[in-house]
Amino acid sequence: MPEAEVVIIGAGAAGLSLAHRLARTAPGRRTPSVVLVDAPPGPLRPPRRTWCFWEPGGGRFDAALTSDWRHLRVRPPSGAAVEGDIAPLRYKMIRSDDFEHLVAHDLAGSTAVRRLEATVEAVEDVRGGAHVHLRDPAGRPDVLRARWVFDSRPPGSLPAARTTLLQHFHGWFVRTARPAFDPRTAELMDFRTPQPARGLSFGYLLPVSRDEALVEYTEFSPRPLTASGYEAAVRQYAEEVLRLGELQVLSTETGVIPMTDAPMPRRVGESVFRIGAAGGATRPSTGYTFAGIQRQTSAVAAALRRGRRPVPPPAHPARSRAMDAVLLRTLDSGRTDGPALFSRLFARVPMRQLLLFLDGRTRFHQDLAVGLRAPAGPMLRSALELPLLPRRPFDDGP
């Protein structure tokens, strides 16, 4: 039975991030042996996608960035846009293919991390560790023994919650026939889109040059759209709102991110943990996940190097999660107009401060200052109601 001190299941953002941190030797610190188990090509592999996050100055993965911005814009349904300079922060975009290539290059030079292509069928807690039952691409069964297992695969179902919305989106990477974009400014939320009956929608525009950009349609609502519905929504945004004219679609991306106040279990056995979105790295109010993954995997790697029990920490402070629960309930109940709420926040709170708040990096008095700029009545009613609401399984049916 092959053995490793650490087994990482899944080679998406979380699995690769943890492997990348453990691949690098640290002076005076021990380096555990690691096996990264990646699913064979097929439906079990995560789809290509784009991740965005913000941080000050240079960062760990800058070599793989598609682009970054220090100027952001939010457009309300009507009226003047809100713009802000977020320096010293940078809003960064990284495509999963480029991220994987960067990490793969570094892992190739590491003696600590071994990659294994296999389908994981079960993870079993045993005395002093865990057994990972897997099947290789030829269909042969095997068992891998590990001291610690970190599972980054999406859970089969969401835990019971008081509120669960979905952030679902479809985007085009486009090239226009004429210069149509300002590459210095990213459009974070453009609410000039038709709004759904429940929830909210917005356009998202990340320009990488004068004639190339990611143009995306996003909804926060209970149900995804059909494939034709997404195509129509992006086309309407590109043609009728942005008026881009003739364009070429270079590639597309589609995704669904749960936005839920459900507690996401990070420990599922004596030696088995969940990381990434499965371990609560997604910020419930925004859907951003990449920055939470980096905080979580950094803490896990540090604990492993120190020989401590590597329980993944919460990716977001308890105070932030509590405020997110109130916001989700307010949006889902329809007590406030979503585009008006977000437009109001960005108009009344400096953009840099609001981004720090959305990343859980503000103090209590700063959180309070943001909260006071939200509609008090609907928020207070939702906050008082939450303790009385039962947690229910998420119904993803029609």
TrEMBL record:
A Pfam cross-reference name: Lycopene_cycl
The enzyme's E.C. designation: 5.5.1.19
Keywords: Isomerase
Enzyme class: isomerase
InterPro entries: FAD/NAD-bd_sf (IPR036188)
MF-aspect GO terms: isomerase activity
Name this protein carries in UniProt: Lycopene beta-cyclase
Lineage: Bacteria, Bacillati, Actinomycetota, Actinomycetes, Kitasatosporales
